[in-house]
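hiii, so i know i said id send this last week but things got crazy w the move. better late than never?? heres the sequnce for the chain we talked about at the cafe, plus the structure i predicted for it. fair warning i was half asleep when i ran it
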Amino acid sequence: MKGVNEANEAFEAQLRAVLPDATFRPLTPAYLEEPRGQFCGNGGLLLAPKTASDVSVILRACHGARVPVVPYGGGTGLVGGQVMKDARPVILSLERMTDIRATHPTENVLVAEAGAILADVHSAAENVDRLFPLSLASEGSCRIGGCLSTNAGGVNVLRYGNARDLCLGIEAVLPDGSIHHGLRRLRKDNTGYDLRGLLCGAEGTLGVITAASLRLFPRPAKTGTAFLSVRDPAAALDLLAMTQAQLGQGVSAFELIKGTGLDFLAEAKLGGSPPLTPHPDWSVLIDLGLGPSDGPEAALLTLFEAALADGLVSDGVIAQSSGQRAALWKLREEIPLANRAVGAISSHDISLPLSSIPDFLTRTDQALAAIGAFRVNAFGHLGDGNLHYNVFPPSGEGKETYRHQRDAIRSTVYDLVAEYGGSFSAEHGVGRLKTAELMRYGDPARLSAMRAIKQALDPNGIMNPGVIFPAD
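okay and structure toks below
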């Protein structure tokens, strides 16, 4: 232990000789924790660089000394990618790299450093009358570098795509300390391998994103929101098709909500006043963004009447003001908080082919019923096939009583996801939580190619070891 401590002290002294004092930060417990409490770090050296050059110095030193590096954004990730529990790594926080470097409204581009809070990127876009559409519940604390590194999704993927789709170019520091100067603002650049696309979604295993050129969009002149009770998930899919046929690209979000989630909101005293009583077994939340000549309330009313005539919906509420619209979205946004208050035995971020979703939900509910009397809250981004399928104990009981059944629950859910050609990780990433699932369900050729890329860019294995691939 003495030798290890001496080596750590010598390495820190080496960095202190070449980095500004402000780079070195006290390591508080927040940097060793993650929101779900499944991983906990046991120490490390916290560094908060200010420039890409500082990051380069750090990675070059870590590469030479074979010191592991954990890139740290806002700490909001849900699969343990920001916490390393088996070593004392350099925790490289982007919290000081927060500048909005440039806005180009005529090009619909904004250039932000990786430590910029997502809400601040939204504000910077709004200041030039533009929209940056990535929308997450954690937008007040997550950082854009982490959003890109995990290829975050959110509620607007249906219209605008994932984080990778919203990124035109990146500046990144590779594991050997070299800087990739890729902050281009081009829509077309057919000059070889797409490092931008590769590093977006790599979860910090291939380098550190330090800045990005982000796509902006015109702000919708008018918005509209409706909460509609649907017969079942199959009817929700038919309603999605009808909505897109009538409103095309004006559909920004289409969220599926199970009655269990509404029950949880009431139990946790969250979500505000329920829009419909009693709670419908299934409902959808539809959000529109339209042009100045369009009337979203009238469009949603026409949609409701057509869906009612076809037997797809039975009731609904159409927001008549920004306050009512916010209230409807509050309900959806606080479902994860209600889930946390109730306490899930096992949570699953999955994606499926759209047409498979109704059958998957029926079969998975039946399969889990054979294991135990669980409650299931299935909700999420129906428009892009991403569901959060979360399993809870019976009413009045705690999740710890059923902890021993978690593996059986996960296998049941993920085996059926794989059978339907879906993904066990839709938007949260693999992190440290789902490495076994990647090894089990991943395509062998793809895994082999991924390992080759990792070995080529990070031969010393310093970048976020244990993320995506299991630790050796």
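btw The CA atoms of residues 415 and 440 lie 10 Å apart. thought thatd interest u
miss u guys!!
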